[in-house]
Amino acid sequence: MRSYDPEADEDLINRAYVFSVQKHGSQKRASGDPYFSHPIEVAGLMTDLKLDQQTIVTALLHDTVEDTLTTTDEIEKLFGADIARLVDGVTKLSKIEAQTDNERAAENLRKFLLAMSDDIRVLLVKLADRLHNMRTLHFIKSEEKRRRIAHETMDIYAPLAERIGMYEYMREMQLLAFSHLEPEAYETITGRLNAIKEGDDGQVHKIARSLEKALAAGGLAAQVNGREKHPYSIWRKMQERHVSFEQLTDIMAFRVITDNSAECYRALGILHQKWKTVPGRFKDYISTPKRNGYQSLHTTIMHGNNMRVEIQIRSERMHRDNEYGLAAHWAYKQGGGPDGQAGWIRDLIEILDHAEDAEELLENTKLAMYQDRIFSFTPKGALLQMPRGSTTVDFAYAVHTDLGNQAVGAKVNGRHVPLRTQLTNGDVVEILKSDGQEPQPGWLSFVITGKARAAIRRFVRHKERDEIVEIGTKLYDEIVERLPGKIGKKAMKAALKRLDMVDEDELMIAIGTRELSDREVMEALMPGSVNDNDDDREWPEQDRAISIKGLTPGVAFDLAECCHPVPGDRIVGLRRSGENVEVHAIDCLKLADGVDADWVDLSWGMETDGAAARLMVVLHNKPGTLAEMAGIFGFHNANILRLRMTNRDAPFHTFEVDLEVHNVHHLMRILSALRASEAIAQAERL
Questions:
Q1: Where is the TGS domain (predicted)?
Q2: Is 257 left (phi over 0), alpha (psi -120 to 50) or beta?
């Protein structure tokens, strides 16, 4: 530390060193080394990055709370509140009793992300901790444990290193994890690379010298280095492109390092004049850096015997920043502590707030960290980096969660497009919004960013809860009507106590999802109101239909796919434990399968409007008959949701049509018009 910070508090670092050695005592690592060698190695990695003394002390102490009897309070007392906070952030919650590995991993990640949002140095220590653990992973005897740690590294820690621009850490973690997850592929690729290195007769060196000579002839002194591609990145390309090792043309990469950014563009011009370029392979990350701050020019040229050569051109400063990312900005000499408020971290924290369970948190966090990027612009020219494959809805949520929630349409480059439209590099995106709009459950089928998925799921969960409470309240009111006497407010309080429930909403949800039967609710409200010997349901039955007006299909109830009920049909609901109420037309043949469910008499409510009906239409096999059928639908203001040919023989074509109609009377008028047409042989409702 003294080499870059002569004023470092040597006493503080010595105390931390001695404390760590004493607390870890005779503990051994899987390699047989004393345990305290690990925190010392991690602290060494932090000094390589020239980090401040608080970070070095945190690295020395980072495992004491997790693996010894030390407490956070003890650390605070001896080393101060800041160091205690950093150590607590790095400490894993390995002692929590989670049901699954995923839940435990999610809880660790949850705490870690929160600490990281407060101070990014937590992440730097954690990455160094994971890197050293990966370097010694081969000493662990259990293959299952090695694979689990390698998976976690590949899915979470390598992407985190990439997101803060620490490519050196990312590459080494990926390589080590790859060697444990795909040992055969690792051995094959490294073997091939070694064979190329031995048999290329110094080819990499020759190409590097020819590039250097070309630059010097153009009046530019630059340093050129060549290397084989990373084995993991070669394997990933082979997987993505479905090609063999021999078919890969770009397994070598060269790096040109200049004094400043102006010389980077000069170098690019010289190389492009001397050799042909490969179209579509040029990227300018200097004028538009990656979200993690990465800057470089990327190009591919055809060198010598039509060999593809990939070249990265960057300045000395860019190279340092690209290898160590945010850590390079926070080297001790540059002063000022890290703020941890990078935009992508804020996105992760928002996902954290919205996630319902462990699976969802892990899925959305990986989505947020582990994807290629594209660049899109707002109408005012602000640049947003998005994962490749992002839609206009993803873009809206990237701008602001409220804008995503209220999106009703979008314009891309001035043209109206559907919300599911995928964006490409350079698109200018304008989101059209409405205060009355709400996120749609269907958006989950096409959004790809973790932030958008988390926000939509959160809204759908809240709406689902509200609607289940509403349907449960309607059922509750109907159950109360069947009690032998009137009840007061005290009865509800007593019932909640008997059922061990917190509040009325919890009771309504239990009724709406049939976690409680009508009988149990009646007995809780008025003990003795139900005959105990009753297997034949000798208590009063439901005597009035429950209205489903105002509820959203697919949220608190589902319209049955077998009979496609529409407003005006006589309907009945099947209520099974833990499921939405399933709504059927009263004459549906599938109702006979509902013997395990409570039957609920339902009604559409006054002026309920709109549902999807399914029709079977047989057309004569003649030109223009399909157009005539579509014309009848259009004339009656009915929207086609789906059209599928189910059968085709010489004289007839049979179609299945899902049609959006107002009510059963609207549907009957359409059926009558279809049957009256000469183009149509038969029309029936399914």
A1: 368-433
A2: beta
